[in-house]
Design a protein that fits this description.
mainly beta, Thrombin, subunit H, six-stranded antiparallel beta barrel, two-stranded antiparallel ribbon
């Protein structure tokens, strides 16, 4: 049975402006599992005299638990569109236990 919260979450993950297609690989190996993830949209750049380097900064990713059952350090997410690879540092379930909140670094 559907509810407003799950319907809204599904709409976010289906929106091309919010989520992207990815391939999750447990331990960074194997064939992988197709999923949709939410990642911050940031290309890097300068803010005044400060230059921001997105490649080395930790990234916050989200993925539905219905698509990826478990997330552990060393797992990877490869973005289908641009080939960017994110290596998981830590994954924790959200408060509703429907998403993984993931800290990752770009490989």
């Amino acid at each position: 049975m559907s509810n407003a919260f799950s319907d809204a979450l599904d709409a976010i993950y289906e929106d091309a402006n919010a989520a992207v297609d990815a391939l999750w690989k447990q331990g960074g190996a194997g064939g992988g599992v197709a999923c949709r993830i939410i990642r911050p949209y940031y290309k890097g750049g300068a803010v005044g005299p400060l230059h921001l380097e997105a490649r080395r900064a930790p990234h916050d990713l989200r993925v539905r638990k219905s698509e990826v059952v478990t997330v552990m350090a060393g797992d990877t997410f490869t973005i289908t569109q641009d080939g960017a690879i994110y290596v998981v540092r830590q994954g924790d379930p959200d408060g509703e236990n429907v998403e993984w909140r993931i800290q990752a670094e770009r490989a």
